[in-house]
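Board notes (copied after class):
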Amino acid sequence: MRSLFDSNQTFVDANLATLYGVAAPASGFGQITLGADAGRAGILGQAAVLAGHSQPSRTSPTRRGVFISGTFLCTEPPSPPPGVITTIPDNPSLTTRQRLEQHRANPSCASCHALFDPYGMALEHLDAIGKYRATEGTLTIDSTGALDGVAFDGEAQFGAVLRQSPRAISCMVSNFYRDVNALEDASADTAQIDALGQTLTAKNYVWRDLVAEFVASDAFRSAPAPAVTAGNP
């Protein structure tokens, strides 16, 4: 399961092969192995994920960071305070990172942006549609950061850090438990979730083994039925 974050395997057609800088398959989609110098790995290196969390014409470390924080670390950021200016002025002499750092000089902005911008910065070598770039125009990209004290430089290293992150594993198990039991909030079931995490570790992180054990457990068989609502018989 942890290979979700750092796998060097993906699928491309002729269009994606050009974007990823690899040889195209003979026809349709084919599985390829990304080289160590690809600058991408795992789900956060996928063009669809990167493009889906960018602005139309540029990257957005904020959008990407919010997605990572909420989806893979189960930390939902608060909404911007009323009246705050969320646009960042263009300045071709500064990188996106430098402009966001200026934005965070305002304490009311830093209190939120510091929670997620650093994760989005890890992806800055991958542009708005997910193509690798060595520089931002002519400017040097700084994609360094840290997750829970573990340093990374770039998306591939960030994926490797997420692979080993207890917080990321716990979040994935929590999301799984919530979704299969149709719960909006699983915070009351932390003991069950912790037990699932221990099972996952004992099963050497093989997801299908966790699922097989889970569906036979009280955590699944005795879960409360979801409420019946209009349109959801």
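Comment from the instructor: Residues 107-121 form the longest helix (15 residues). The mean pLDDT is 89.
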